[in-house]
Design brief:
Layout lengths: L15 E10 L3 H15 L3 E14 L2 E13 L5
Antiparallel strand pairs: 1-3, 2-3
Length: 80
């Protein structure tokens, strides 16, 4: 028996806001990105995409601090 083709879903209009954040970690770039997203998710809802723009290392007192600069998008809900 042949499968029926699924009907494509209609796109729901939405608006997304993009901001820049910098996450940091003493352990790794991955942890720096995760820390940034974790912190941002405390005050922003409906996070959608994080795009890493730049990775760098800051040296503080002879120790490395990994930094991940990211553009983060979230759904804009406007005034509720």
């Amino acid at each position: 028996m042949a499968k029926k083709a699924k009907k494509p879903r209609a796109a729901v209009p939405a608006v997304y806001k993009i901001i820049e954040i910098v996450g940091t970690s003493p352990a790794s770039f991955a942890d720096a990105a995760a820390n940034g997203i974790k912190s941002a998710s405390k005050s922003l809802r409906d996070l959608r995409v994080a795009e890493v723009d730049k990775l760098d290392v800051k040296i503080e007192n002879g120790k490395l601090v990994y930094r991940a600069k990211m553009k983060v998008s979230f759904k804009y809900h406007g005034e509720d």
